[in-house]
């Protein structure tokens, strides 16, 4: 039982770091640019498809993951230059309507190029094995790699935001973009960099998630909903909050799906537990979000408010 619990904890951590990669881009874009991007999940989906494409062309999975992230970064850059920057002075409703339309365009585009059926994203033999861990756990090597990459990217992101000049400008722009613009910072270029970097994180997450999920049109929508939950729980614009909330959501979602039915069977009949367990497990993260919003409407670790 101990081994099973620890294995599910690792699964929850792996889901959490993937959610963080997506939510970090979402919260940066909203915190710095005050822009709601519903198409962020489509960038995640494109990352998974590009990884399959580049793996077929290069024969290297790890190289394909890097190329997929860069390809989605380029798409995000073009998206910001050609469309998004024209919406900054518009209402959030306009942001939602335009980016929702982009979801439809992206889903139809991948259906035309790759077809509507799921695409297989395979792993090389050296990444498909198991690793012996303490307490008799044999855990997939690739899932450990995903956890390690997520932690490394989180550490790099914290360093970029806190220790570099670009990070200082990002934090200043999130606090008061008008003052930053008056001081001579090119706000347009800063916004483009933030949006492209957020797209890179989403594409990287999609490329890493490809072998774990079904690569198919619309795969980004479910992940996008969980990512928004992460952003709301952590606090809009907060990188630390996004990391904390992503780990919480990943653990709660995974542990609930793994053990809630067995827990309920101790109090109810097996039929009731088998019906109520999966339904309640899928609701746990939203119940958590409702509780956080009730007691801390600004989120767990909110960003300093823009003045």
UniProtKB/TrEMBL annotation:
Keyword flag Hydrolase: no
Subcellular localization(s) per the UniProt record: Cell membrane
Recorded family membership: Belongs to the binding-protein-dependent transport system permease family. LivHM subfamily.
Major subcellular site: membrane
UniProt keyword annotation of Phosphoprotein present: no
Protein name stated in the entry: High-affinity branched-chain amino acid transport system permease protein LivH
An annotated GO cellular component: plasma membrane
An annotated GO BP: amino acid transport
Gene: livH_7
GO MF term (any one): transmembrane transporter activity
Keywords attached to this entry: Amino-acid transport, Cell membrane, Membrane, Transmembrane, Transmembrane helix, Transport
Transmembrane regions: 12-31, 38-55, 61-84, 96-120, 140-161, 182-205, 225-252, 272-295
Topological type in the membrane: Multi-pass membrane protein
């Amino acid at each position: 039982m101990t081994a099973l619990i620890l294995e599910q904890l690792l699964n929850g951590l792996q889901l959490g770091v993937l959610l963080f990669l997506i939510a970090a881009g979402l919260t940066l874009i909203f915190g710095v640019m005050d822009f709601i991007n519903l198409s962020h999940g489509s960038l995640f989906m494109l990352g998974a498809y590009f990884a399959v494409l580049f793996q077929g062309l290069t024969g290297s999975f790890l190289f394909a993951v890097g190329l997929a992230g860069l390809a989605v970064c380029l798409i995000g850059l073009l998206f910001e230059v050609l469309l998004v920057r024209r919406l900054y002075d518009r209402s959030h409703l306009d942001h939602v309507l335009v980016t929702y339309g982009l979801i439809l365009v992206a889903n139809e585009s991948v259906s035309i190029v790759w077809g509507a059926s799921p695409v297989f994203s395979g792993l090389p033999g050296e990444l498909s094995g198991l690793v012996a861990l303490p307490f008799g756990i044999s855990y997939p090597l690739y899932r450990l790699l995903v956890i390690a990459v997520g932690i490394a990217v989180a550490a790099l992101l914290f360093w970029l935001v806190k220790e570099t000049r670009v990070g200082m400008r990002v934090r200043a722009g999130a606090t008061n973009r008008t003052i930053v613009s008056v001081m001579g910072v090119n706000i347009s270029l800063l916004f483009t960099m933030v949006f492209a970097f957020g797209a890179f994180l989403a594409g990287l997450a999609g490329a890493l998630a490809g072998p774990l999920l079904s690569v198919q049109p619309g795969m980004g929508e479910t992940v996008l909903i969980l990512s928004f939950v992460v952003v709301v729980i952590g606090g809009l614009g907060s990188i630390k909050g996004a990391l904390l909330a992503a780990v919480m959501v990943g653990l709660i979602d995974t542990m609930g799906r793994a053990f809630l039915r067995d827990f309920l069977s101790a109090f109810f009949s097996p039929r009731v537990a088998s019906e109520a367990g999966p339904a309640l497990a899928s609701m746990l993260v939203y119940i958590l979000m409702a509780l956080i919003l009730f007691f801390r409407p600004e989120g767990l670790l909110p960003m300093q408010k823009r003045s």
